Amino acid sequence: MKKIIKTNNAPAPIGPYNQAVLSGNMLFVSGQIAINPETGKLETDDLASETKLVMENLKAILAEAGMNFENVIKTSIFISDMNNFNKINEVYGTYFDTETAPARETVEVANLPKFVNVEISAIAVKSSF
After folding, report:
1. Which of 24, 63, 81, 127, by CA, is between 20 and 30 Å from 45?
2. Residue 70's closest CA among 36, 118, 27, 23?
3. Domain limits at 44?
4. How many domains in the chain?
5. CATH number where 15 lies
């Protein structure tokens, strides 16, 4: 059984998908880009601000499911230019404790939705351990 997670505090999907799907105790969060949920507009002028908005969108979806970044076990980061990795990683790192950070991969891709610089997805789990 799956439960669809939706919040107005993150951008609405721009295609046939949902912000996140909860299945059992696992949450699968769709890739987030720097769309401001209040205005519906892209904010890509500054890479650090763009990455922060992506992370804040992830945070809002996690919160809607009753979770936070401590619940995240895996992320996937897609970037349009690997030369931007350090700037993106610097912002990304502020959302996680180094000792308990999730597994992840970072991949440079030829293009991203709406020609953004970064997209991040996540898998989170509610656990009792």
Report:
1. 63
2. 27
3. 2-125
4. 1
5. 3.30.1330.40
